[in-house]
Amino acid sequence: xxxxxLRVCILVTTYNDPESISDLIKNLVLETPFPxxxxxxxxxxxxxxxxxxxxxxxxxxxxxxRLVRNQKRxxxxxxxxxxxKDLAAxxxxxxxxxxxxxxxxxxxxxxxxxxxxxxxxxxxxxxRMKPESLGEKAGRSFWRQLLRYLSGQGINDPLSSYRxxxxxxxxxxxxxxxxxxxxxxxxxxxLWRGISIREIPLEIxxxxxxxxxNRARVLDALRVTLMNSxxxxxxxxxxxxxxxxxxxxxxxGIMIGCTPFTGIQTIMAFLVALLARLNVVAVGAxxxxxxxxxxxxxxxxxxxxxxQWLGVPLTQDPVLPHFDQWxxxxxxxxxALGVFxxxxxLAMGRLADRFKxxxxxxENRYDQWLRALVGRFGVRAGYFMAGLMAPFSYLxxxxxxxxxxxxxxMVRPEFGFFRRHWRIWKHLYRRDQIHIDFMxxxxxxxxxxxxxxxxxxxxxxxxxxxxxxAWKLAPExxxxxxxxxxxxxxxxxxxxxxxxxxxxxxxxxxCDRPDSDRIELIPFFGRLAPFDLxxxxxxxxxxxxxxxxxxxxxxxGQYRFFAQSARRYRFANDLPHELQLYAWxxxxxxxxxxxxxRYPEEWQNFYPFWSSIPKNxxxxxxxxxxxxxxxxLPIPDEFASGFQAPSAPRSEVTHSTPSH
Length: 660
Hints:
Layout: E1 4-6, E2 8-14, H1 18-31, E3 36-41, H2 54-62, E4 65-70, H3 76-89, E5 94-97, H4 106-118, E6 123-127, H5 134-151, E7 163-166, H6 167-170, H7 181-192, E8 197-201, H8 215-238, H9 243-257, H10 265-276, H11 280-287, H12 294-309, H13 323-377, H14 379-396, H15 398-411, H16 417-442, E9 448-451, E10 461-465, H17 474-477, E11 483-487, H18 494-502, E12 506-510, E13 519-524, E14 527-532, H19 534-542, E15 546-555, E16 558-563, E17 567-569, H20 577-598, E18 627-629, E19 653-655
């Protein structure tokens, strides 16, 4: 059985701690099989000059241990983010971190590594033994409750450095922590991104270093306080955004804004949102009801209701004789206005939900009308209508626009804000043009296409493509005989694919959006992305030629299809099948990367391609049936090196000769 291959790298960051770090690196080299990335974060004495161990020196020369030194101290978050980017570009899938001040044993590391096989998309944290001192117990309880407040999930040991980070779902995140506050920040941000966190009990005692209060300690405490405050504010702004949460928070804010405590109502609103975990923006917006000219009206209404309805007498205070009437009347006025506005917000939320249900029906009606328009007046009329609808398309497709922001940030990182969004506007318009051309073909209209296709009439053939360019128009315009288009793997079975290939048909399969449990994480524009290995397994089993096929829109009503020379894949005996499949898929990824780099506006994957955890057809998280680590595979020495992914022998990929 062919497994998914994971690559783990141990990350060690240090600052002015050469003695304990040198012992730690030596132990990790001797007790673990994984590569090490050691970052010296601007230490006064370079770490490399303190590594005297013969085993460590050999590991550095062989490439298993890599030393990186920062000229200035950048902080733990910057070091981790740099390591995340570099390791993703090299094909690593997970980062393992350990405690620098504690002796790491191979048994504890094995516990974390074995759990990765069962949950490759989760962030794993090793829960150390309970502390003995009262101060350490109180500290751990505080951090646990803070994380529960931020995300709703409590972690027994949130400051443990024994962790395994999945690179793929975290690689697009940004972190700002400088010191120990980074440990809490990354847990909160991971939970906000929907990444599950699992705790693994470890038989390691919590370290208890002696605290020496100096200038550095004071700065660390200040940074921790500021980071925690920022995380709390972010959680109050970004979370609790359902219509019910917004309605409750706005109603409470209105009640606070109607009180006579003018000048401190905003502070009161923030404190109430903090204590009750309400959306701070909604509470603050509700408290602004007391701005002019509503202040006078609310004051008069509160005094009138307090005096006439509630019968509150005047006070003896010569300055504010109506204060009691104002205070008690404001509770009635605030409650009535708060309930009214809350009900109004709930009604608007239900209308928005109903509009989402009707949106698909409206878009279907619009497609029918647009198909009739194209069939009667041609593609020019369709392009004209798409141009008129372009502003609504850009503003209405929020999720697609956000995914394209991520896409152009990867493919065109040099673009500024306005240039990037201008390209997104054109990108969505190009997508609509291709869709209109597809309608034109279904209506019987003719389109022009050039193709360098060379057919293989005597046998079946596999066409590998992606959601890129004119993949919908490939059956009619690519020039391929007996080709019914690209199909997702979940809509068919391997048996049906084999039967079609035996009949001499062309079968089109996608590689870019995994819909089976045979996937690999392969670097794509410097970041990991999941790709499907099923087409290559089918190619080996059927012994059919494989052609990479891509179609591009060149101008109005004209297309160009590129078909690379056919390949036949066979397994070599001197290398694991998993690595050969990985290398073949990487060939496709490099080809796709070349086309996407030259024609980015043809990209058709409108979802966060570099951060969305793959889902199965049922909607659950996709877990491969078998997972192994690269170090567990029988790799010959000539193919194995620390930071380089092994590749399959080129001799096992043969090119077929087509008939003209």
